[in-house]
Amino acid sequence: MFAHDGGNGMNRIYLDYAATTPVRPEVIDAMTRAMETVPGNPSSIYTTGRLAKYQLTQARDELAAVLGVPGNELIFTSGGTEADNLAIKGLALANQHKGRHIITSQVEHKAVLDSCHRLQEWGFEVTYLPTDKWGLVDPEVLRAALRPDTILVSLIWVNNELGSVNPIAELGKVVQQHGALFHTDAVQSLGRLTINAGNLPVNALSVSAHKIYGPKGVGALWLRKGTALQPLVEGGAQESNLRGGTENLPGIVGFATAARLIEKERSARWAEEQALMDDLRRELAEIPGVRINTHPEQRVPTILNISIPHVDGESLFINLDLASVAVSNGSACTSGAQQPSSVLTAIGLPDDLARATIRISIGRETTRETLGSFTEILKREVHKLQKKSKAIA
Ligand SMILES: Cc1ncc(COP(=O)(O)O)c(C=O)c1O
Predict the structure, then answer these.
(1) How far is CA 361 from CA 18, 142, 328, in A?
(2) Are residues 183 and 43 in the same domain?
(3) Cα–Cα dist 167/150, whole Å
(4) Residue 350 confidence (pLDDT) above 60
(5) Residue nearest atom 16 of ligand 1, based on CA coordinates
(6) Mean of the per-residue pLDDT values for the chain?
(7) CB-based contacts of 235: which residues, under 8 Å, 6+ apart?
(8) Is the same domain home to 151 and 298?
(9) Does residue 59 sit in the same domain as residue 43?
(10) Beta strands 303-307; 357-361: pairing state
(11) pLDDT at residue 6 above 50?
(12) Nearest atom (ligand 1) to Cα of 217
């Protein structure tokens, strides 16, 4: 099993569900069935193709129902990264005649930040909003940054590193009043929050399958009807002419199945995960000097981000891996060098503390026992390293 395997090279204590989730058996079944029984190309006009198209439409409607939008407003992509690229670059390029100013925040996923950097190279101006210490954007700070030439605002809903939840409806209202377009990266929101995108002051929203026990390599961008978008992948009329290429039908069927199942379980799981996470938060708050970076209330119950002072971050992660624990660290590997994550720097953490930062994210297989073992191992390793660092000091 994914979380407690012990035999296939996987970490025994898997607490990195925000990085990816194991594909659930019902999804594997649905995908296998699609591959075995739906061999056609959805664009072919004979019966085999039409059957594939029917299956694609069913899956599209299923995912759309979970997002609270019409099926024909979804554009399937190769994942969250492509959906973010398509939203940022596609909306900016299609609307540049109205202005060339974009607003985002300093704590976005790299898919958004790097798309914005590219737009700067293409002559757009980008404002990167600061956040509070939890990574949240203040609607008044956003309001003050809007300019007559602002055409697009993109803000993350649930922060993938911190688990803090931006007030997306309130932020969207500010953008809507101004008349600009609003995109949100909802990759970490799907399966955790009620999305109901059609009723939000949002024009575009990105999601991904592998964060909700679906397959890797499939995602979607919801684009509100009437919003102009420049396609990035060209070469076919698929996805309403907005994303060329034969659709990844098994992946899309898997995505829709995963979305339907997680939506059904969502509120019951929230309560369970909240109980587990509250206990974990209390336990870890006992670590000397620990700083908790996840907002105490505006958060999802699946992610906890903490920084531990007086420990060498790299040694901590090596020791945790040796103890068979998989958690995410506060560094990104850039050109072979470990750089502190830009999100952690943006919320005000100094480099050494950012390097000694852990993101713990829980999921369907996480039990009280898993978290008990993890807490014991973490406290033991932190104690050893803090003692060593004091001895050196
Ligand atoms: C908030 C957020 N946006 C975008 C992505 C990228 O999604 P994908 O891995 O499907 O490309 C991720 C995944 O790491 C994410 O957490």
Answers:
(1) 6, 29, 8
(2) yes
(3) 20
(4) yes
(5) 160
(6) 95
(7) 244, 245
(8) no
(9) yes
(10) antiparallel
(11) no
(12) 10
| DSSP labels, 219-267 | EEEEE-TT-----SS-SS-HHHHTS-S---HHHHHHHHHHHHHHHHHHH
Residues 80 and 199 in one domain: yes
pTM assigned to the model: 0.96
CB of 111 closer than 6 A to ligand 1? Answer: yes
Classify residue 5: in a domain, yes or no.
no
Task: Among 238, 260, 282, identify where a domain stops.
Answer: 260
81 within domain boundaries: yes
pLDDT for the residue 3: 47
Which residue puts its alpha carbon closest to atom 14 of ligand 1? 19
pLDDT category at 1 given cuts 50, 70, 90 is very low
The one-letter amino acid at 132: D
Query: Residue 5 and residue 248: Cα distance in Å, rounded?
Result: 30
Catalytic residue among 271, 333, 337, 393: 333
Cα–Cα distance measured from residue 14 to residue 34, given in angstroms and rounded to the nearest whole number: 30
Neighbours of 294 (CB within 10 A): 24
Instruction: Give the count of domains, the chain.
Output: 2
Report the CATH number at residue 200.
3.40.640.10
The tokens for 262 are 């997680």
Q: Is 333 a catalytic residue?
A: yes
d(CA 171, CA 80): 21
- Domain interval for residue 236: 25-260
DSSP 316-377: HHHHHHHTTEE-EESEEEETTEEEE-HHHHHTT--HHHHHTEEEEE--TT--HHHHHHHHHH
DSSP letter assigned to residue 211: G
59, 163: one domain: yes
